[in-house]
Amino acid sequence: MVGIVGSGKPFIKSVRPRARRALPEARGAVKDRRLMTSPDTFQTFIPRGPLKGAIRVPGDKSISHRALMFAGLAVGESRITGLLEGEDVLATAGAIRAFGAQIARGQDGSWTVHGVGVGSLLEPKTALDMGNSGTSTRLLMGLVAAHAITATFVGDASLSGRPMKRVIDPLSQIGASIEASAGGTLPLMLRGAAPAVPITYRLPVASAQVKSAVLLAGLNTPGITRVIEPVPTRDHTERMLTGFGASLEVGEENGETIISIHGEADLRPMDVVVPGDPSSAAFFMVAATLVPGSDLTIMNVGLNPTRAGLLQVLRQMGADIEEVDRREVGGEPVADLRVRHAPLTGIDVDPALAPSMIDEFPVLFVAAALASGTTRTTGLEELRVKESDRLATMAAALTLAGARVEEQADGLIIHGSGGEPLPGTPQGASVATRLDHRIAMSMAVAGLASRNGVSVDDTRPINTSFPTFMGLLEEAAAA
After folding, report:
1. 131 vs 27: CA distance, rounded Å
2. Is residue 338 classed exposed, middle or buried when 0-12, 13-18 and 19+ CB atoms within 10 A define those classes?
3. Whole-prediction pTM
4. How many Cα atoms are found within 13 Å in the side-chain-facing hemisphere of 385?
5. DSSP-based helix, strand, coil % in the chain, nearest 5
6. Under a CB-based contact definition with an 8 Å cutoff, are residues 413 and 375 in contact?
7. Any idea of the CA torsion for 221, 222, 228, 229, to the nearest 10 degrees?
């Protein structure tokens, strides 16, 4: 053991393994130095008692990405407060700067963006490094596709293995020229079309990223570009583009949603208030539900109905989650969530809810592992092409922690412990997170509800989406 972090009974320990594969250093992250370990260490999370008090999670990642992009396309100065300052969002900020926008962070934590206007993007002088951010990559590909510029997209090892064909196909239809690596992955070079051709595109899979890429391309395309959405996905793009002044209509036909955007748009600057990220709040919702004696309030959480699937499922399982002071911030519904420990019961999760909680399934699997009875999930093929194969990775990790898990082609069947701590091994389970930030955080939560602790092989990917995660765990446990 090389160190113990925290006062009283610690819940995070740093342990040095025999050997580790070298990984590239994180880029530009806002780190909690108090809880970060050296690159040669992994961390063990052990029970520490109830989570109490009030915490505030960082700004919503999806909204933060879009706020920077749309402000960069507006002519004039926009101000963004509550922006998530994780690596993924900072990758977006770097790309928008490369396109010619001026971006600065104020001492009060707010960000100002002086945009260049739709149709006026500059050609980047170097490759755009997207790090681990699939959202940055796919949305910015849509942005470039309708501008007369060329951009090269690169990313880390994890992102370079993720499929881009789902975006390449519609952007090729509008006239963009795309040269991708084998399998349709990064590195990738995209030459925008001038002028682009408006299309009507039916989404073959439920994907807010693909929908948004097509709509962003439509901003600088003459005529009307339409996206047909058989299954609703998160609608932050539609809400925010309307706020920035785009001409956009949302209708319904034969049970499908049709989003139409009028091209050659003139976006106006605006001030954006980013609510707390529900995907980040999810880890604390589950942790407080599982750990006996917990009574934790998570402040200012975004409750967009296209993102609220986990809240609905946890309540169906018996969770005690109260919405306090429900209100609207920046066009998005928000509330403070008071979460108290409650016993859970396994359920069959409706696959129709998957798009509204796709990023929250890893931590839901942890909740299911501690429930009474069996939880069944289906329709989750999309989880196999995230930062990792999240079905296989979570099945392996939870099994090591002592859960009973059956992996299916499109989901997991989890036989819960009935509220008993996950047994793991006498030395504590040591799990591989496959460079996936949500796996790391989910298994950290599992450690809090275990008998002997759970070790994760690398916590640094957490900085891509939730750089204050460790500090908030410490704060809630010490309250």
Report:
1. 8
2. middle
3. 0.84
4. 13
5. 30, 25, 40
6. yes
7. 40
Report the candidate in 195, 92, 178 with the shortest Cα–Cα distance to residue 140: 92
Instruction: Of 397, 440, 439, give the one whose Cα is nearest residue 422.
Output: 397
Backbone angles phi, psi at 219, to 5 degrees: -60, -35
136's tokens: 């940055």
Any idea what the Cα angle at residue 41 is, between residues 39 and 45, rounded to 5°?
130
How many CB atoms within 10 Å of residue 175?
18
| Integer Cα distance of 25 and 5 in angstroms | 22
In the chain the domains, ranked by start, together with CATH numbers, are 3-59+275-478 (3.65.10.10), 61-273 (3.65.10.10)
Cis peptide before 24 (omega within 30 of 0): no
For residue 426, the tally of other CB atoms under 10 A from its CB is 7
What digits encode the pLDDT tens for the residues 355-395?
999 999 999 999 999 999 999 999 999 999 999 999 999 99
Beta bridge partners of 56: 299
Q: Check residue 12 and give its pLDDT.
A: 52
Pairing of strands 128-129, 102-105: unpaired
Amino acid at residue number 451: R
79, 143, 300, 353, 366 from 122: Cα distances, Å: 22, 12, 37, 40, 45
- Compute the CA torsion angle 301, 306, 312, 314 (nearest 10 deg): -60
Phi/psi at 340 (5° precision) = -120, 150
* 54 CB-near residues (< 8 Å, 6+ apart): 296, 297, 298, 299, 336
Q: Of 454, 397, 388, nearest to 421 (Cα)?
A: 454
- 88 carries an active-site annotation: no
- Asked if residues 325 and 395 have their Cβ atoms less than 8 Å apart, the reply is no
Condensed to tens digits (0 to 9), the pLDDT of residues 272-324 reads: 999 999 999 999 999 999 999 999 999 999 999 999 999 999 999 999 999 99
d(Cα 242, Cα 262) in Å, to the nearest integer? 11
Q: How far apart (Å, rounded) are the C-alpha atoms in residues 459 and 229?
A: 36
Catalytic residue, chosen from 60, 336, 359, 458, is 359
> Tell me: the pLDDT tens digits for 237-275?
999 999 999 999 999 999 999 999 999 999 999 999 999
Q: What CA–CA distance (Å, rounded) separates 131 from 43?
A: 23
Q: Which helix (H) or strand (E) segment is 262 a member of?
A: strand 256-262
SS3 205: coil
